[in-house]
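User: quick one, sequence for these tokens?
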């Protein structure tokens, strides 16, 4: 089985629009997601894409 890992190219930009999002903290993310998803928020280096 040959499943090569694709090199992740420093996920600093949005995979959809390829712009650099706003840097936000963990707390901000926790407030944006719904309760069931809040537990999945780990680390504190999040960026948010403001392209709506
Ligand atoms: Zn985006």
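Assistant:
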């Amino acid at each position: 089985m040959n499943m090569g890992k694709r090199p992740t190219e420093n996920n600093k930009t949005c995979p959809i629009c390829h712009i650099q999002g706003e840097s936000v903290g963990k707390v901000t993310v926790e407030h944006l997601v719904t309760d069931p998803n809040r537990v999945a928020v780990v680390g504190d280096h999040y960026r948010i894409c403001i392209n709506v």
